[in-house]
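Table S2 (text version). Query chain:
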Amino acid sequence: MHDDTVLLPPETQPDLPDGKPVVLIVDDTPDNLALLSETLQAAGYAVLVALDGQSALQRLARITPDAVLLDALMPGLDGFETCRLIKADPRNRHLPVIFMTALTDSEHVVQGFRVGGIDYVTKPVKPSEVSARIAAHVQRSRQQRQADMVLEIGMRAALIAAASGEIRWQSDLARQRLAWYEMARTPTDARNGDTGDLEPASASLASGCVDTASPLQHPLIEAGPRLPTTLEQWFVRWIEAGCDLQAAFETAADGVRRVARVLGPATRGEWVILLEEFDDAAHTSALASQFGLTAREAEVLLWLSRGKTNRDIGDILGMAPRTVNKHLEHVFGKLHVETRAAAAAIAAKASTRY
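Corresponding structure-token output:
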């Protein structure tokens, strides 16, 4: 079998190259696996293999390929039952499953379609036919997934970026918000109020997992529309640091906090990034007006609603923790609550407009 074919224990997480579509071949005959693996690798695919249905399901629990080439008749869990179980997982609704079978009568062909198969090829397989069918289904499946994603996130300030920093797609609102990152020069740090150039080191990283002082490990590819430099540097470092979905790039200027965070993968090597804006000045003013608070009390309540301790709030607003506590006593009285949690819940509910 070809050296690049991934044949590992099914519980192992395979290390696959970005950019290449991935095909999982499930067949209990090693000669068939070897022929199909070499054919598909020559056509530019990364190949995973499994010798039985159970191993295929274990493999799919860890990675979603772009297509599955599935033998219909195997000992134990046959191809039809394997396909039914694959399609029972909502994550695989667009995953094309192509059956391989020597059975050409209509009963078995129909059975394959009934359990979720999208196509079939007859044995002995013709490599050129298999490659052509897989290429067509992979392209159609990717287009469908992208269309679903665009519909889901199109009304938000979201974009899809490749690991290189190249923008593959962006909503109109994301395009507008990216313009601020292109033009910004001296925003205020969201945590302590200092000013400085808009660089990763001056923004706050929510999880602290990215070393913003370290140099980029990979050259950036110059092609197509790209993330603004600061976001691109943060994004590449975020990937190098392990893709922690809790991490966020945050800056603040003119009372507006801007947060970039990764929602998750779009396709292999591409990620969905959400650009959020929070008008802290308007929010503070609204809290003060709605609940009869002073400006300082409203600021304390705003940061309380974001889970900050008295010490944190004091650092942010430049006051002693005991002063923060005095403001909170007044806030609790005006909100008619007795606990921090209750006050935070009221403020959070009022914050949905900002």
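Notes on Table S2: Residues 185-223 have pLDDT under 50 and may be disordered. Residues 127-153 form the longest helix (27 residues).
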